[in-house]
Target: TauD/TfdA-like domain-containing protein
Amino acid sequence: MTSSPLAPPLDVEQAPDRPPLLHIDTPGDAPSWAAEHRDALRAQVAEHGALLVRGLGPRTPEQVGAVFAALAGGLMTEREAFAPRETYSPGLYSSSTWPANQPMCMHHELSYTLEVPGLMLFACLIPPGDGGATAVADAEQVLQALPKALSERFEREGWLLTRSYNDEIGASLAESFGTEDHAAVERYCRAHAIDFTWQPDGSLRTRQLRSAVVRHPVTGRRCWFNQIAFLNEWTLAPEVREYLVDEYGADGLPFNTCYGDGSPIGEDVVAQLNTTYERLTRREPWQAGDILLVDNIRTAHSREPYTGERQVLVSMAEPRRLADCVPTPEASAR
Model:
């Protein structure tokens, strides 16, 4: 589907502290409106990295799925999830299960996979009572704002994600790999450059080395693209980290991140990353019926703590091969 050549230009509001915002009159048939204006909406995402559409007004998962299909076409099936989601229809999910009082810090969705979503789509059906924004930050600006020595080390070495799968916390094998069959999990790991070890109790531990800085596949601009801070032990609330270390041991955390050479990342570095993100964060409180489109490579996103009920649906689209985005030949050889 393409936009009508007679469709009026979009009047997008811009402010330094929030994502670009488009107000529209309720169109009645939201999927048809989305299909008609698809190209114009996507052009705004390409220009700004994100776009919040207010007034489109899908109210059910079925309507959200139809709008997302109109905007993005085929939706991706999530693999290697770090937290459980509810599946509403193929490619349409709930937001990740995560404690409401804990933030989900800035990150790029599935940046540790070999095929990453180029586009993230969010829709709010029930806004929270307070907080809970899906905030965004420009990854090119984040890279420029980080200390040069730190960004150059990560660009040179990459980052290492370690995971421990169990039945008590985080995503299960079935939720992450789509199967509990050990042979199938092993085949997936070998095909996706994931080192794996089965523990005596039958649990799985994995390690995967990925690039921390990539070039945008369309603009060629260098972006800070990873989940180094979000999936690091020092981003966890102190009481949560202490419990997990006591329960599973320092090397048995459900997820953790290291420098590419395997050495630990200090608490001060994680704090510096999160502080840099916060300086560049743009946020807008959710309203029912809002749609947020995010260029997943150019723009990081977060989920802030909230109170009350919150229902935000998520889809991923436009898969990009990470090897096509790495900034140097050395990185693509990993």
Q: What stands out?
A: DSSP finds ten helices and 20 strands in the chain.
